[in-house]
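Section handout 9: paired folding examples.
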Amino acid sequence: MSENKEYSFFQSVERSFDKASKFTSWEQGILEQIKACNSIYSMRFPVKMDDGHIEVIEAYRVQHSQHKSPCKGGIRFSMAVNQDEVMALAALMTYKCAIVNVPFGGAKGGIKISPRSLSTYELEKITRRYTSELVKKNFIGPGIDVPAPDYGTGEREMAWIVDTYQSLKPGEIDAAGCVTGKPISLGGVRGRKEATGLGVFFGVREVCLMEDVMKKQGLTLGIANKKVVVQGLGNVGYHSAKFFRENGAIVVSIAEFEGAIYNETGLNEEDVFQHRKKTGSILNFPGATNLKNSGDALELDCDILIPAALENVIDGNNAPRIKAKIIGEAANGPLTPEADDILAAKGVLVIPDMYLNAGGVTVSYFEWLKNLSHVRYGRLEKRFTENANINILNQIEELTGKKVTESEKEIIAHGPDEIDLVHSGLEETMINATREIMDIWKANPSIPDMRTAAYVCAINKVGTSYAELGIFP
């Protein structure tokens, strides 16, 4: 987490919450309950490293809200992990799940290690020990708390977690649902890898299809031909750039920590990725201009800016120089509260992280449902749909006396695979969430920005859950 002396990440989240709570009608006690972290598990455990010495590992799991069960949130492996950061990310998970109508409470986990400096065996021992600590205290389970990947973790770590959990809970039929982001062979779901980047694209596209919003921003309708700058070429940045490019946008710049590259005619993220793999840097990419300072890319002339890397990259210092008309927050917390105020005054539309990067948790929800139902998406209906489509096509050909080509026939007949259904479910989720937030904002023009409208949406949903549980008379 980048240093910000004035606000910790958690304080930024609380400040945004307080700003939005004024636009709701919930009494202070309910607002305090929604804001509070319900359970914080701070742990220390010893692990014998490869050279024989004992290392005491610092780790956390925070369950922010249990207004719905289970709780949900990733586990990050990073030396920057601390309790404040994990609490902030858990709170954002609560609000994120509420906005996109995923029935989970928010949670987050973290282990304070540098994964790159450890061997695979050391990482496995630490991950399995962390899982057993969570099992001991009832902080993991398909109906209790369901972790997922985050910074420094992926399918491999999730596989270790599910294996450890199953070994400690023999005979639990839904054990595969104790964690998401697993390999396909262990109950994972197709479409999980690109989910966050695709969700970012769907959310921004929906905003770009709103005529009144585009008119206000001085932009044309739709994604086509819009200039896009993407900061970060990790999983989220890569897939965001990919879907924007494939849908007609021009990705003019890609930034990474070593610098940035610019080409006004557009960049192909896969070519840039391969260049970086080969040379160790995105700089000196053929046909592109180098920008030595990575942060300079944020200030380029563009229509859409996608910060998909670190927290607090746009602050009170550089916000006045931002030229983008729309900022889509693909990373967690890329703008400081000062930046928010400056950009709102400038008329820049900031599409907030708390729902825009919810693609990962949405598809994790689909994976969890798959684990509980014990059946792959599309298995029951794929052939039925294909047969029905072929019958309809045959009837039309017979009635019209015209034939379609084999390739056209294949497209028309196609029944949905798991990945088709996952992408479709994600698209539906992001479209509905975007419209819901925009409707709240339009209904109350005194709400200053889209982030505040998103918080209002989340607070109302979580507050309603608490009220209906009968916790508050």
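Moving on to protein 2 of 2.
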Amino acid sequence: MSKLPITTSKTTHGNRSNGGDFFVSKNSKLYLSDGTAFDGLAPDWQTGSFSGEVVFNTGMTGYPESLTDPSYSNQILVFTFPLIGNYGVDVNATESDKIQVAGVIVSEAAAGWSHTKSDRSLIQWLHSQNIPIMTDVDTRALTKYLRTRGTMSGAISDIPIKISDIKLEQKFVSIDAPVTYNKGGKKKVILVDCGAKENIVRSLVAQGLEVKRVPYDYDYTNENYDGVMLSNGPGDPTDYKPTIEIAHRALELGRPVFGICLGTQIMALAAGAKTYKLKYGHRGHNQPCLEIETNKGYITSQNHGYAIDGKSLPKGWKVSFKNLNDDSVEGIEHVSKPFFSVQFHPEATPGPTDTAWLFEKFRGKL
């Protein structure tokens, strides 16, 4: 098997991948905002420069779910596992209706793939949505560099670019108008969509709940509902000012509120706490967390670049989970009111489902 479904010559490769794709490759670079550059290859059809925040994911599998996770919007995703794409792509196993990342960087992209539910190769899928990819990159060196110096912006380009050309803007990923699922369910939950993964919807519906999914800046506080779910999403939580203000009013109403990932940061800010940016974030599905009350450990799926400052939590709030790698806050809870949230992803996809019981806990509070 050839190493890549693209070649380093300017003629098409004689061997064909299982996806039926022929590619010619060319030299490309990842330019980081501190002036460092990493070499690699890119498909010949890929032209121009593509900017994003450069982050890494430690997962061995789950690339279709990760690439369609709205929390990765505006980010160039580096996969630390050396071979990506070996089981192709099943477009039904995704977490949104499109690829969300700004770019993909791998050491090796599988030339062949095999899975009964997949119908295309990773590179075919990226090509169909004009998402750039770099292969043959020393992702181990790149990851070590980011771990040492921290997450930074960058650009994938086949032509030299200036650092000043790397510009990022905050992107909000949300629906345009409310949508209801499982109408007539036992209880009604408002899902605030800041970039919600589809499995959050599926997990709530599986609990027999009616789910009204609303835009991130939608004011639901005057409506009839039993509880609120604050979803995951991309970017700096402090940029979600309307979401925080509305969540603050929701907390004052006293009805159950459950937050996931960005949602836990929004809950903290709505309660009066502070957040900060992590050096390189937590992204992957092997993050160990400890539930403080029970002293029980869980392996969790995570994708975030910010965290809550536990010391800033106001009276009445407590830290419920902590990360066992760096002791950062992984969950908060009110000591008497039905408010709780977790920094990790109990809905998984990808990753372990060890903490799926949190959806049952939420249903029990409604």
